[in-house]
């Protein structure tokens, strides 16, 4: 565990990782102990929020998707204009977002679990440390996660799986410090199993974290464009944000 000096006071209500009090956990056993001590299992998920934007739900990302979809349709009878407004409502997406800011899970007890898993092999977690009104300084919230992850809203957490891995891909940034090099295993993923048909999963991916719904068949749950477009604002990311061309989704 790497303790931080954050005091949870955020200037202008903008998220700053250095101001967050959550420690950095690198051992699977540390994360298991945290969830046990905070009695997460058995709680009912009431709401889910993202402090920052979902990069793969931005205006820029969806415009690129619309262009790619149009290019795939070679038959003139099925031509789709390369514009977001012409994406067919039956088009299937994954219930998955890319983020590099914390996710806040609010329970029926009123307590909040805050998780950031956007760095390979290490997780930051806290209870009731981040206000729901907290925003990212570099981009607005652009998605309603209650709609995106609707299959787990109202469900109780029935179990928590913490995945293990021996090493990280070579092109990933290594965990902080040196102690992790002596560990038998790194944290690979977190899966909150629920009483419903899907669980809520977290895992790092390159420069971001992936948050998604995983079905009992171990496949990412789908959502149609007709359902998805009611959950997103299509807010543009603007310059200086994540390079949307690095990822293939």
Tell me about this structure:
The chain is of the alpha+beta class and 249 residues long. The protein is built from 4 helices and 12 strands; from the N terminus they run E-H-E-H-E-E-E-E-E-H-E-E-E-E-E-H. It has a single domain, classed as Roll (ibrinogen binding protein from staphylococcus aureus fold), CATH 2.30.310. Helix content is 13%, strand content 29%.
The proportion of strand residues reads 25-35%
- SSE order, one letter for each helix or strand: EHEHEEEEEHEEEEEH
Strand order of the largest sheet: 1-7-6-5-2
- The total strand number stands at 12
Domain count, please report it: 1
Mean pLDDT score: 90
What's the architecture in CATH terms? Roll
Label the overall shape. Answer: globular
Specify the helix fraction band. 10-25%
Spans of 5+ residues with little confidence (pLDDT < 50)? 243-249
Structural class by SSE content? alpha+beta
User: What is the straight-line distance between the termini?
Assistant: 33 Å
Question: Biggest β-sheet, characterized?
Answer: 5 strands, antiparallel
Radius of gyration: 19 Å
Count of helical regions: 4
Regarding CATH, which class?
Mainly Beta
- What would the CATH topology be? ibrinogen binding protein from staphylococcus aureus fold
Brief synopsis:
With about 250 residues, this protein is α+β, with helices and mostly antiparallel strands. The protein has helices at about 30-35, 60-70, 145-150, 225-230; strands at about 25, 45-50, 90-95, 95-100, 105, 110-120, 120-125, 155-165, 185-195, 200-205, 210-215, 220-225.
